[in-house]
Amino acid sequence: MHSTQLEPNELSAVKLIFDDIAAQEWFDKSEEARSSFARYLIDTYSIGQIEPARFRKIVECSARMHYSRAR
Q: Who has the most CB within 10 Å: 2, 12, 21, 46?
């Protein structure tokens, strides 16, 4: 199990995913959404080892459900 403190390489990997998903057209650009999504990513990553591509798919699906802009 991961601790809540991420190693620099882990933080970099999570940040790349955050930056990519938060830059999507559908993502809510509010500071509240960005902050909440960042916490979600760190909490989810900290749960345990998960293959990077699978982690990306899981968090993107969640982001689309919870952080999409209203149309």
A: 21
Q: Is 63 exposed, middle or buried (0-12, 13-18, 19+ CB in 10 A)?
A: buried
Strand partners, 68: 27
> Phi and psi (nearest 5°) for 68?
-80, 145
Going by the DSSP 8-state scheme, the letter that residue 51 receives in this structure is -
User: pLDDT tens digits, residue range 1-47?
Assistant: 445 677 888 889 899 999 999 999 999 999 999 999 999 999 988 87
Report DSSP state, residue 9: H
Q: Any residues with CB less than 8 A from the CB of 46 and at least 6 apart, and which?
A: 1, 2, 3, 4, 6
Cα-based torsion angle of the residue sequence 54, 21, 62, 3 in order, rounded to the nearest 10 degrees: 60
